[in-house]
Amino acid sequence: MKNLIVYFSKSGNNKFLADKLASALDAPIEVLYPKGFNMLFFLLNLNFGIKPIQNKLHDFDRIILVGPVMMGRFIPPLKAFVTKYKSEIKQLVFVTCCGSGDEVKMEKFGHGHVFNDLETLLGNKLEFSEALPVGLTLSPEQKSNSDAIMKVRLDEANFSGAIAQRFDNLVARLI
Ligand SMILES: Cc1cc2nc3c(=O)[nH]c(=O)nc-3n(C[C@H](O)[C@H](O)[C@H](O)COP(=O)(O)O)c2cc1C
User: Fold this and answer.
1) Domains and CATH numbers, the chain
2) What average pLDDT does the segment 151-170 reach?
3) The pTM is what?
4) 3-class SS at 127?
């Protein structure tokens, strides 16, 4: 199966994850460049689209889209990619390194809403969605501390234990 990793990352966690996936699956990788993305536009929910991508999506059996969840939303660059290229996408898997854990995924800012939005957008082109919440890197005492969650930056040192296990399971599902 020919995979292409496509990602957007603001503070590096999803870049780290996308690089890991590209290496585990021996797949090419492409970064999304939003047109005029900044936090103000984002908070106002303004979407100016993305710059054209370099790869030809028709050449790939599966796109693995990687990016964060913010304000409980499918963020503009990711949504712009799916909307713009939907007709060229054969199958898509969405992977997010997000702040919300499994237990709060259907709460206001939970990643479950984004998974549902994607299903609505892509229908049966969506193979599945998977979350690797940053809280998986934290101790049980810190897991529900929102400051600690927002400060996590994935690196080789903290990518171990529960998050590494979830990553390995994901890779096994994708091979
Ligand atoms: C402004 C802002 C809003 C966020 N909102 C959410 C949210 O609603 N739900 C969530 O699960 N995580 C939320 N997060 C956490 C990010 O998804 C998490 O830190 C992610 O790993 C950042 O990815 P990046 O480093 O690739 O940009 C938010 C982070 C920021 C900076």
Assistant:
1) 3-174 (3.40.50.360)
2) 98
3) 0.97
4) strand
